[in-house]
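so im writing up the methods section and need the Secreted protein record in one place, dumping it here so i stop losing it
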Amino acid sequence: MTTRRRGAAVGIATAVMAVAGVLTAAPASAAHGVLVVSGNRIDDPSGCYQGHHWPLVVDNRTDQVALVLDDDNCGGQVVGTVAPGEKQVFEFGASVHIR
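--- predicted struct ---
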């Protein structure tokens, strides 16, 4: 594994652990705001949402971090995170999970 790839893997692993800590500490309620996944607007989202277009575009206008996964129905590996107020494009994203 190259140093660049190792650095990216460590960065993603660190982000996933940080998000996992935030998600476990969050109350059991929907995120407040709007999540846009593949052009579909979801008000006060909670749970799993499918990406219907490639590449997957996630616009997170909520107060929670969104996890992007590489398989349908929020299965597979986390390929990235989208912090509140961020918009990102994922070549290998298939679904998005938010609490």
